[in-house]
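Support request, please re-run this one:
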Amino acid sequence: MSALSELYREIALCQQCEIAKYRNKVVPGEGAEDADIMFIGEAPGWYEDQQGRPFVGPAGKYLDELLASVGLSREQVYIANVIKCRPQGNRDPLPTEIHNCRKWLERQIEIICPKMIVTLGRYSMAMFFPSKSISKIHGTAQKRDNVIYYAMYHPAAALHQQSLRRAIEDDMLKIPSLLARAETIKEEQQPQQLTMF
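Re-run finished. Output below.
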């Protein structure tokens, strides 16, 4: 059994949060265990809760289109969320839920060891870019501990706010060149300071 499969079994048994009682399926994540790029969203929605897979609703279809625009497929990347169970009524994740799930996400990152982590939306952004505003830092990257962190709007944002669609698509188009230049991008010495590439 792979390290990820073993982790998924552990996540499926987790009952730390109240929302575990209401889930249909836990949604750990999916994709290549050796992916260069890891996308991290916020929380499963209704469709994800039904299928136990991340990004399978309308936002997921848009993410598939975004991946295709840079010649990627789901099978080549890894997709996860900050929390692994759907909050009732699709409400925002609570700080305790984010805290309780953090260990699962950290273990996924350890196992996959991606070259690039793309945060989708403000909750995943806040984990890696604390106290920053997504409207100011989307489309910017920072390298720390040999990993490039890159902030993007959540694909669902484009479904609610058409005006963001262009920004999301433009930000996606920067990913291949950032990854290609991963070796040449200098480490950020001050983690709080963002570097534009």
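The CA atoms of residues 137 and 151 lie 7 Å apart. The beta strands are 30-31, 37-41, 78-81, 116-120, 141-144, 147-152.
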